């Protein structure tokens, strides 16, 4: 049940706060009054403080939930449910440019994923997955010849017996990094298939929850910023043109 609109919070109070699509454990770190309204600064537990937010009193009923076992369980279940992709197309009502952690009861021993480490891990995981599966899973039949031409051109640069380091990882001579050449349109094809890929490759339930939350927030970020990251006139070219 959501808190009453006039419920007042104090510094160090803990709540579940909505960020992006889901609720996460947060703590009130500052309380101040502006224009006759209370403003609460919330810090998401286990995240970098750059993701702290200021929540007006008027928004508390929709942004906060009491930190109860039942609410924690529901919040975690919502994240888990997203693993089947049922919410992947749901737009966020707030910008989603952040790195979430899984929701668990606060028992004095936090084992949450570091925000920076999670960001780097998710970004590298997504890029490497894209590079590996593009040729086999993401290209339409008419796109295959173009890829083969590109692959042949790249292979000619690596006609040696050793592997080179390029763009962050060791490459076999016959391997290219499609992420250097293919953009948002093909990335979206990967995101559609991602829930199934994640379930097959996650080492633990916690690892799965963390990856799902990270990538759903990335999807929310893309949806919020679509006009800035996509341009159909630049992203597509008429075949033979």
TrEMBL record:
<dbReference type="InterPro" id="IPR008676">
    <property type="entry name" value="MRG"/>
</dbReference>
<dbReference type="InterPro" id="IPR016197">
    <property type="entry name" value="Chromo-like_dom_sf"/>
</dbReference>
<feature type="domain" description="MSL3 chromodomain-like">
    <location>
        <begin position="9"/>
        <end position="59"/>
    </location>
</feature>
<feature type="region of interest" description="Disordered">
    <location>
        <begin position="78"/>
        <end position="111"/>
    </location>
</feature>
<keyword id="KW-0804">Transcription</keyword>
<dbReference type="Pfam" id="PF05712">
    <property type="entry name" value="MRG"/>
</dbReference>
<dbReference type="InterPro" id="IPR038217">
    <property type="entry name" value="MRG_C_sf"/>
</dbReference>
<keyword id="KW-0805">Transcription regulation</keyword>
<dbReference type="GO" id="GO:0035267">
    <property type="term" value="C:NuA4 histone acetyltransferase complex"/>
</dbReference>
<keyword id="KW-0539">Nucleus</keyword>
<dbReference type="InterPro" id="IPR053820">
    <property type="entry name" value="MSL3_chromo-like"/>
</dbReference>
<protein>
    <submittedName>
        <fullName>MRG domain-containing protein</fullName>
    </submittedName>
</protein>
<dbReference type="InterPro" id="IPR026541">
    <property type="entry name" value="MRG_dom"/>
</dbReference>
<keyword id="KW-0156">Chromatin regulator</keyword>
<feature type="compositionally biased region" description="Polar residues">
    <location>
        <begin position="81"/>
        <end position="92"/>
    </location>
</feature>
<dbReference type="GO" id="GO:0006355">
    <property type="term" value="P:regulation of DNA-templated transcription"/>
</dbReference>
<dbReference type="Pfam" id="PF22732">
    <property type="entry name" value="MSL3_chromo-like"/>
</dbReference>
<dbReference type="GO" id="GO:0005634">
    <property type="term" value="C:nucleus"/>
</dbReference>
<feature type="domain" description="MRG">
    <location>
        <begin position="116"/>
        <end position="225"/>
    </location>
</feature>
<dbReference type="GO" id="GO:0006325">
    <property type="term" value="P:chromatin organization"/>
</dbReference>
